[in-house]
Automatic annotation (TrEMBL):
Residues 3-162 form the Formyl transferase N-terminal domain. The lineage of its organism: Bacteria, Bacillati, Actinomycetota, Actinomycetes, Streptosporangiales. It comes from Nonomuraea endophytica. This is Phosphoribosylglycinamide formyltransferase. InterPro entries: Formyl_transf_N, Formyl_transf_N_sf, GART, GART_AS. Belongs to the GART family. GO terms for molecular function: phosphoribosylglycinamide formyltransferase activity.
Length: 185
């Protein structure tokens, strides 16, 4: 996304990169690009609710139009969800295999095709309206790591494309579906 946003025609820029823990490659990548970063750790707060509020306050410092969750492994609470649209990427074809272990669960189930889903987060876990999906074939030789790496290649490209289109064209939510721009494909 940082690379794509170097082109003014992309229509979006990364105003900050945040995480709930240190040592994240995305933080280092942002720092190399002189993009502001922040870390808000759950363990630094007395309760989950206080962390939720603190995270939303950190995000508010950057006034984003859209929050993108990519590999953010915490369920976001109401303070963030009620303040911003949150786009999430999940390494499975929702509603199948939601949660923190989508690739592991899909492989264990024996699926021959899996993929990734870009959706708007809601209060549930991977239950929000779907923006886009792409499929990835499962190879007989796959283990969780090899399959997940192939999914990541597809989902990163999809996420960058979707964020740019949403920024340029806007979006509307119709029940469980998100339409980018003014009309259905
Ligand atoms: N309100 C929402 N927040 C988030 C969603 C969402 O759909 N609604 N998606 C997640 C990303 N995600 C799957 O795509 C996901 C991430 C993490 C978990 C989870 O069980 N997290 C545990 C802690 C895990 C850990 O710390 O290692 C937790 O939050 O207690 C489920 C799904 C992003 N946020
Ligand atoms: N349920 C949330 C979830 O599984 N998120 C997944 O974590 C990976 C992060 O990869 P990265 O750390 O290499 O960017 C991505 O595949 C993302 O979809």
């Amino acid at each position: 996304m940082l690379d794509a946003s170097a082109d003014p025609a992309y229509g979006a820029c990364v105003v900050a990169v945040g995480a709930d823990r240190d040592g994240i490659e995305g933080l280092a990548r942002a720092e190399r690009a002189q993009v502001p970063t922040f870390v808000e750790k759950l363990r630094d707060h007395p309760t989950r609710a206080v962390w939720d509020e603190a995270l939303a306050a950190r995000i508010a410092e950057y006034k984003p139009d859209l929050v993108v969750s990519a590999g953010f492994m915490k369920i976001l609470g109401a303070p963030t969800l009620e303040a911003y649209p949150v786009l999430n990427t999940h390494p499975a074809l929702l509603p199948s295999f939601p949660g923190a272990h989508g690739v592991r669960d899909a492989l264990a189930h024996g699926v021959r095709v899996t993929g990734c889903t870009v959706m708007l987060a809601d209060a549930g876990v991977d239950t929000g309206p779907i923006v886009a999906q792409e499929t990835v074939k499962v190879l007989d030789s796959d283990d969780e790591a090899t399959l997940h790496e192939r999914i990541k290649t597809v989902e990163r490209e999809l996420l960058v494309d979707i964020v740019g289109r949403m920024a340029r064209e806007g979006w509307t939510v119709h029940g469980r579906t998100v339409i980018i721009g003014g009309a259905r494909d």
